[in-house]
Design brief:
- Helix content is 41%, strand content 17%.
- By secondary structure, the chain is an alpha/beta fold.
- The protein has a seven-stranded mixed β-sheet with strand order 5-2-1-6-9-8-7, with helices on both faces. It has a two-stranded parallel ribbon with strand order 3-4.
- Strand 7 and strand 8 form a beta hairpin.
- The two termini are 38 Å apart.
């Protein structure tokens, strides 16, 4: 069984990138079909928790809003994400190397935005001690081996301002732009893990309630069944494409059809699925790391400027503060400020 999750960070802000993360965990062997979807928090409870550990001996894994706050910083978020990456043999010596591991397609786009380049004083991990991450990763790796759980996919789509504005101009709709980015993850999951009893959990996409028509348009070869569509919850089943009929007279062979793919969209999916929680945390970690670079860039030009998280009201304040300097640097609005 493959339990996958998709979630985003940065949908609402005026400044900074949109990040859509994806995580897939493999459970061996497949649980019986009649049983509920296994809870990965329970299976890995010796080394991780939904809540902040008072002793500091467990990794905190939950919705990124529960793990990260401006007051506590990136420490817990970074420790959990880097521990999962390292436990799955995805170690990095720098933030750029980590970006290359989880979102290589974004590097060319990020390079077009000088405020996302690494500063001279940037260290990695950003807020954690590397030895601490390694110790947690070793414990997590051992527990995942014991529970027969493997992290098979950890990727993100990082969409900086320039490309996001182009995408929103093309779709004419912010929610449609978000779904088109998430669809890249869905497509990869279907192609790569579709035959392995795949269940995909997604947080709601920009407030959208129904997804059946979009799924049919994007994967027209996959017969789709709408299981349920109600407030805050939508579930679909995709059957595998039917094989083409043989063109010659050779006898047909019997093929066992792989299990159908379940896709579930729900409110607060991060608290229901650990795969979505990890996708949420990865997205937030990448966005916050890039926003640190964003603020560091502007502070090299304007040391007195107060950093911003990029959300609308404070984003407007920040744009006012840097207005003269960004005009001096000839930075166009469509490269820096979101159109929607």
């Amino acid at each position: 069984m493959i339990l996958a999750g998709i979630d985003e960070a940065g949908y609402g802000p005026l400044l900074g990138p949109l990040v859509v993360g994806c995580c897939a965990l493999e459970l061996l062997p497949d649980p019986p079909a009649a049983e509920p979807v296994p809870c990965l928090w329970k299976q890995l409870s010796k080394v991780l928790s939904r809540n902040r550990s008072k002793t500091g001996k467990k990794l905190h894994v939950n919705d990124s809003k529960a793990v990260y706050s401006p007051s506590t910083g990136l420490r817990e978020l970074e420790r959990s994400i880097l521990s999962f990456a390292a436990a799955s043999e995805r170690t990095s010596a720098s933030f750029d190397e980590f970006l290359n591991h989880v979102c290589p397609d974004a590097l060319a786009d990020l390079a077009e935005h000088p405020w996302y380049g690494a500063g001279a004083g940037e260290s990695f991990p950003l807020d954690q001690d590397a030895m601490s991450v390694n110790l947690f990763a070793n414990g997590l790796r051992a527990e995942m081996e014991r529970a027969a759980v493997n992290l098979v996919h950890l990727r993100a789509q990082v969409v900086p301002e320039r490309r996001l504005n182009l995408l929103m101009d093309q779709t004419r709709n912010k929610a449609s732009a978000l779904f088109s980015i998430a669809a890249r993850h869905l497509d990869h999951l279907l192609k790569t893990y579709g035959g392995q009893n795949l269940i995909i959990f997604c947080d709601r996409q920009g407030g959208r309630e129904h997804y059946g028509q979009l799924l049919r348009l994007m994967w027209e070869d996959w017969p789709l069944e709408i299981v349920q569509e109600k407030d805050g919850y939508a579930e679909y089943v995709l059957q595998h494409p039917r094989p083409a009929r043989p063109q010659d007279s050779a006898p047909r062979t019997q093929h066992t059809s792989p299990p159908p793919v379940r896709i579930i969209f729900r409110e607060k999916a991060e608290s229901q699925s650990m795969s979505v929680a990890l996708a949420s945390m990865l997205s937030k970690y990448l966005r916050e790391g890039l926003m640190r670079r964003f603020n560091a860039f502007w502070q090299t030009h304007l040391p007195e400027v107060t950093p911003t998280a990029g959300y609308y009201n404070d984003g407007l304040r920040f744009l006012k503060d840097i207005d003269i300097k960004r005009r001096e640097l000839n930075i166009l609005d469509q490269h820096l400020v979101r159109s929607r």
